[in-house]
């Protein structure tokens, strides 16, 4: 029986789940096995990245990802994945030798020599250091994290009916490692994942994966790994640690979870293997037209004097932050730039709630455009990585034309609570720059991505001549877990206050103008989620103490006090800050609003100035630069100011731990900040806090696997059903339809489902793949019983594409009735683009 048929009968998922549990073996993992990996040295790299580095080959043998990664670390370049003892010995010696060699080089080659190497100044060590800043160990890497692109709920809008139907753009983890030259164990990893947020299950998985890579990775742990999400609402769901977000995704999806973890670990490994001395420089620029405040009514409840400080002009009234901060990574060996990391706040909600194609939303577009722009540039290294990290995103929206009622009235939604003529929020929709194009937000998404990319790229270019170097050879980090259900602390004004167990207010169910009211699963009788059918009855009324603690929030879901079948939302939160030189990165577990982020950053900045003054050697001459990245490490929903909390719009209703949530985060951050002093010891183990629950192996799941694939009579997998036209004009879409199979059979990580090939003389060369925004992979089940499906591959040919002869290729994997998966290909006729 095919998937759709199963879905229609509720008992089947239960039965499948029971069968699954009875099988009692380790959960199945996807079956991609990396066979071939170019030899790398752990410290002095061959600095090649990107998907072309890896050839993957599907293997019928199920392989644990740990084994696969061990293979690669052992620097085995072999056709077999069998681990052999001598390869380990050789690898260990090779690593030790490389480390010794690197150490020797660093000790003997003065910074001045590197300055000469990068062709700057040549005026002696002192002058060049002032220009380029201090040296750090730097590495960047990128890994594919694209989970199942069909039949799985998309994460963010919490609409169980929003299921994936294909892929517009692969999702990535981008890793940035910064380490101290003098104390290489002082380092941090900043990850930017094309996901809705960071997460506890994902973080546990990444740390497990790093542990499995061997001793040279033992330097990475809770303290110094930040797992941030771009807040894209266009990726598969089902990988989060807590119950609440699992409700709409029908539970935990191990395939998608593992894809994120493995891709993130791969990105870290690539960054780690590329570590080498280099320079960091900083810059800021204004981004216009890429964000507005979607909860202005709440923002205006912040003190007028405070708001006035940020009200610069009519176009920059301070209601959102327009600054983009960019950190440039440049290697010392040849002066080439290896990557950029940027922070700018705007929601990943350009792709709307009716979109069903997987993509990285506007941050994914910005990163794609930036990386593409550096390809073949002499100043950029191969494998250049551009991370567009999210910032204080809470009340921002990329739908910059505002929120309008789609109820025929032509009115804007009400200012106070975003309702329309019927008093409800359902008809209130925010508009992106191209809202008139009925493409589920894709045109607007590309535009908002471009509006971030262009100023970032201009800033990057200007940093080539004038830049603010990062100075002070300190790379420091701290991380602590805090149970917010029982945190008592003193406000700066001397009042003792406390946070409360997590709870969500009524406006949480109403949603936002970016995605109104989809999370209305409290109507349990109409809920389509099997998870809700199991857990809905467990909801309990909050106690009087809990109600009082959250005042003035009226509690809808008392999630923090519900532990059956396991915790619904986090009570234990991550508090983390990284420091390199004068740059401090607050790693926020929730979505801080514009003003909440400012207060947090300002508090850190003033305390850091005191710490800098005590540094030895002193860094007091450089004033602290503070950025905030998140949602990271976990997902603790929103963080508003207390004044915004009083208004109880969506963001206030989703501020989990009561009115003092922000103050608690600030208090915790400041109390740990002294550990970031130049000569401060690491945080003692006793202060690392209680570990959050690990729900990976006890999460509910009603997600059924692929049963089998079939073909129409007389057809084979990959056969062309609708061929490409003989010719297309540039700017119009070219497409071909194939006999398809379920893409969940093989995620084709580091590979592609679709390709455009161009005829070059007598050979075909791939010129577009799944990583490209313009190539769209659509999958459609045509018959649930026979298991047939179609794949429609569309190349939205660009105005600037090269004229020539092309064809479209499809890479598929079909599952037969016995469960065996085998790959196949399909190819369209060749066509000309004129
Ligand atoms: Zn959000």
Automatic annotation (TrEMBL):
The keyword NADP does not apply. One of its GO terms (biological process) is long-chain fatty acid biosynthetic process. It is an enzyme of class 3 (hydrolase). Residues 136-667 form the Neutral/alkaline non-lysosomal ceramidase N-terminal domain. Residues 674-833 form the Neutral/alkaline non-lysosomal ceramidase C-terminal domain. Gene3D superfamilies: Neutral/alkaline non-lysosomal ceramidase, C-terminal domain. Its cofactor is Zn(2+). It catalyses: an N-acylsphing-4-enine + H2O = sphing-4-enine + a fatty acid. Its EC number is 3.5.1.23. Zn(2+) binds at residues 231, 347, 591, 638. InterPro entries: Ceramidase_alk (IPR006823), NCDase_C_sf (IPR038445), NEUT/ALK_ceramidase_C (IPR031331), NEUT/ALK_ceramidase_N (IPR031329). Binds 1 zinc ion per subunit. GO terms for cellular component: extracellular region; membrane. The keyword Hydrolase applies. Belongs to the neutral ceramidase family. This is Neutral ceramidase. It comes from Cercophora scortea.
